[in-house]
Design brief:
Layout (H helix, E strand, L loop, with lengths): L1 E2 L6 H10 L3 H4 L17 H7 L4 E5 L2 H7 L6 E4 L2 H14 L7 E5 L2 H9 L4 H32 L7 E4 L14 H4 E2 L1 E4 L18 H9 L2
Parallel strand pairs: 2-3, 2-4
Antiparallel strand pairs: 1-6, 5-7
Helix pairs in contact: 5-7, 6-7
Length: 218
């Protein structure tokens, strides 16, 4: 039951998730980022890059890379959901501890299915299942990475996994300030910031960036 912005579209949604503040502060009220106060409220990935961490942003929806994750050292990748998933899996397994610290992955097929076939339609549920399978592949790649690094050097990495989305939906769209479109979810696994059970009180979109930064020690 995570709550998102009152304007339930991707620009305000992802900015609040990544910057950790509501639109009254980040000033993104649409999918136009011209008013974004990035100098005051940069994304968590930019803060991580500023701290010298190795960051990657792989996004289906290009405006995230174009407007939120703009640090000169952040590796930015675009593409379709399956392509991006396999790319990130390969990165996790190929790159060592000195080459990769933070990964942001944006998948968009579920949203496309909602717009094309309706939220909670059969096609929508199929897209959710396909996305769940992709998340499973990422977790398997992360586990293989952990085992390989531990066997090679004895080092242990602590990865925090955060899965969420920027808005809900109803009918064939979203954008309204109604429960079906303002209510999202978050799943957190791994790291010292995560404990088992249901989060209470329910988090908001603005809680995720501070959670990630706390895990990174920033």
């Amino acid at each position: 039951n995570m709550q998102v912005n009152d304007v339930t579209i991707s620009g305000p949604g992802w900015t609040s998730i990544c910057a950790g503040v509501w639109r009254s502060k980040h000033r993104v009220a649409s999918n136009n980022f011209a008013q974004y106060t990035s100098g005051v409220f940069p994304s968590f990935l930019t803060r991580a890059a500023d701290a010298g961490l190795r960051t990657v942003s792989a996004c289906h929806w290009a405006p995230i890379n174009d407007n939120l994750h703009t640090h000169e050292t952040t590796e930015r990748i675009g593409g379709e959901d399956e392509e991006l998933t396999m790319c990130v899996c390969e990165m996790l397994e190929r790159r060592g501890t000195e080459d990769l610290d933070v990964v942001f992955l944006h998948l968009d097929d579920v949203d496309h299915a909602g717009h094309s076939h309706g939220w909670l339609s059969g096609s929508y549920r199929e897209a959710v299942h396909a996305t769940d399978v992709r998340i499973g592949k990422l977790r398997q790649a992360l586990e293989r990475r952990r085992q390989a690094i531990e066997e090679a050097s004895g080092a242990e990495e602590s990865w925090l996994i955060v899965v969420t989305t920027d808005h809900g939906g109803s009918g064939f769209s979203h954008g309204r300030n109604v429960p079906e479109e303002r209510t999202s979810f978050v799943v957190i696994a791994g790291g010292s910031s995560a404990s088992s059970g249901v989060l209470s009180p329910a988090p908001t979109a603005c809680d995720l960036a501070p959670t990630a930064l706390a895990h990174l020690g920033i």
